[in-house]
From TrEMBL:
Pfam families: YCII
Span of domain YCII-related: 1-88
Name under which the protein is recorded: YciI family protein
Organism: Azospirillum oleiclasticum
Database matches in InterPro entries: Dimeric_a/b-barrel, Sec-metab_biosynth-assoc, YCII
PANTHER family: PROTEIN YCII
Sequence similarity: Belongs to the YciI family.
Coiled coil regions in record: none
Length: 94
């Protein structure tokens, strides 16, 4: 089942993001088989990162929650809010 993981950074937490970025990317690489797509959310001017959006493939929400909780960004306290919702791909078709 697909899940959308939407994470919003705490205000002023760019230093936390920068300090944990390498570990976060290693974590994603280790779970690449579960990631449909992933990337940072950007500030309105496109200059800074303010969160993360991932589309994940897990058996159930509990697995998606465990993945999210084990992310180095989450462990470092980067996120103000984390939402995990079931998601269905509609476009592009195929």
């Amino acid at each position: 089942m697909l899940f959308a993981l939407l994470c919003t950074d705490k205000a002023g937490a760019a230093d936390i993001r920068a300090a944990n970025r390498a570990a976060h990317l290693e974590y994603l690489a280790a779970h690449e088989d579960r990631i449909v797509m992933a990337g940072p959310l950007l500030s309105d001017d496109g200059a800074g990162m303010v969160g993360s959006l991932l589309i994940l493939d897990f058996a159930d929400k509990a697995e998606a929650e465990a993945f999210a909780a084990s992310d180095p960004y989450a462990k470092a306290g980067l996120f103000e809010r984390v939402d995990i919702r079931p998601w269905r791909k509609v476009y592009p078709k195929g």
